[in-house]
Amino acid sequence: MNITRENIDALNAVVKIDIVAEDYQEKVNKLLTDYRKKADIPGFRKGQVPMGMIKKQHGRSILMDEVNKLLQQSLNNYLATQKLEILGNPLPRLQETFNWDAETLSFEFELGLIPEFTVALKSKKKVTEYKIIATEELLDEEMKNIQLRYGKVSSLEEAVANANVTGTFVNEAKEINKKGTFLVSDLSGKKNEKKVIGAKVGAIIALDTKKLFKDTHRLEHLLGVTHEEIHDLDITVSFTLEEITETTPADLDKELFDKLFTDGSVSTATELRNKIKEDAENQFKQQGDQQLLNAVTEHLVENTTFDLPAAFLKKWLATAGEKPLTADEATAEFNKSEKSLRYQLIEGKIMKENNIKIDHAELGTYAKGFIRTQMAQFGNMNPEEKELNEIAGRVLQNKEEAQKLQAQLISQKLLTFYKENMSFKTKELSYQEFTKEVYK
Fold this sequence. Notes:
The chain is α+β, with helices and mostly antiparallel strands.
């Protein structure tokens, strides 16, 4: 066997593999002998079928199978020993004059090579890092919400300005059918309030989603739509009124504090307010971090220039899936995934050059932390270590879930790395200002 490589340019190469009979004949002969021993053909005793007949029936298919296995193994070994970093998979070149009876079987494979490039973490144009603060208005609102949540509820005959209304939102075109509760006072504008105030149980009210609530994000939970959808959502939903209640706010006293914090950590309204601020800003930090990671990703893709073997990748995409793609479809798929591919290469280079990696034990620890957070949301604040280990073990056995957690952990490590190695422009603003600026 002989393997050679021709570099077409910095991004494309062709590997040629020449195979002769001595590379595969011994294995082929053994398989033919095994076939002969097992062959049961009328007119011949078992195991006594002439070898010529066996070769005629099975020789070519066995030869092709063994040569293909040898090709795959040899090509993989060659790529590994030569330390060639490729994109996609090697593409076999079709040869119209190929002859399986030739003394030397020659095969050619096209390779798309990973480009050489450098990643500049420092640049004049700095990425913005948002510090989201809990404003006094937000804290006032959350204090009020807590008092209402634990207040005394009474039923009403018809909706009034301070009533809670519960009902089902429906829009068939958007496949919305969701039950939700909101305060009439949360509605934006007198026009919307007038539609609800005075309505009784059973009423069906047509509501326009655009500027329906003072806080547009209320739609995300009430209608079950994504965060990206709500800002441009301009549809009419029917709201069937099912329940009307009024809540008398709970007093800010020891009874309320003990309900909220059974460990006695909060005993005054000021301490409660500080706790709300701390929890809110921790949540805001998570959103700010995700936005920062997204912004860094965009920044690195825009400021790290390198060429890709585009023609090769389009050809590979045309054959890589279950269903072959036309040239136009493959081009469209390449254009759609190019930015993602570029960041994957940049991310891989950063991780390799800075020894950023995770092992199984680290992933297990991360999984347990994730599970502990999930359990806390359902009231289990102190799960046993044995229980956490068992659940984490089951989760990590699920390939899809394990990959999700691994991706989250890698993102977390990369964000830490970026914060330590890049300079950012810091901007402090409220949550409302943040969402308005980031999700324009």
